[in-house]
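Predict the assembly for these two chains.
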Amino acid sequence: MTNQGQCPRSLVIERVFPHPQAKLWRALTESALLAQWMMNNDFEPVAGKKFQFLADPMPNWNGIVDCEVVLVDPIQRLSYNWGTGGPESGLQWVVEFTLTQTMGGTHVRMEQSGFGPDQMAAYSGANYGWQKMLGGLERVLGEAS
Amino acid sequence: MPQVNSKFVVNHVLRALADPTRRAIFEQLTRQGEQTVHALTRYANVSQPAVSKHLTVLKRAKLVRHRREGRETHYRAQPEALAPMVDWLDQYGAFWRERFDRLESLLQRMEP
């Protein structure tokens, strides 16, 4: 099951995996396992730890994602900052995983929310406005077509 | 991994629409079609210089286009400027769905 977020301020992907929660947690937090489904990395589940995801460089991207662990709440919640393109010109996001035990296994919710340094000020001052504008985006696009 | 070649465009669009007044102006233009600066000033209920400043930001993000007719300047919305933002979300959506597929097959290979 996947679900694209209602408002493009964030992107939400959800899925139920038929596996125990502790196993999901390992796949998300053990560097070697993480490398097998995400990218090569030097991740450690320690708040404040800076790490990188490394992919093959592309024409418009050096293949590096600069990250910093924000929150580690064992087997339930994990979040890290996610930056591409360097701190100056690049885009910054926060990626957060939330694990919940369900009947059939483990529900995983990934939310990626994105605020550049200059978007941050706008966001904190206009949280409601953002929701509204992005909620209205689909409508605006619908009317335009 | 989505490419970020349109990141500057996305930044401009996000910044332009972060302001509630600009957002209102943009939505009004989308709903009502072409409007003069005077009409927009009445609608937005702020001073004309303020409206002009907002329109400049929207113009830079390519969200609006203008034309002059006599002493009036007319503005119209260009909602296609939102496309990079929508693309960016689509790309990341595809990225995460693919990673989740890989996670699923990793879980099958892992010890219980």
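The beta strands of chain A are 10-17, 40-41, 50-54, 64-73, 77-84, 91-102, 105-114. Chain A touches chain B through 49 residues (CB under 8 Å).
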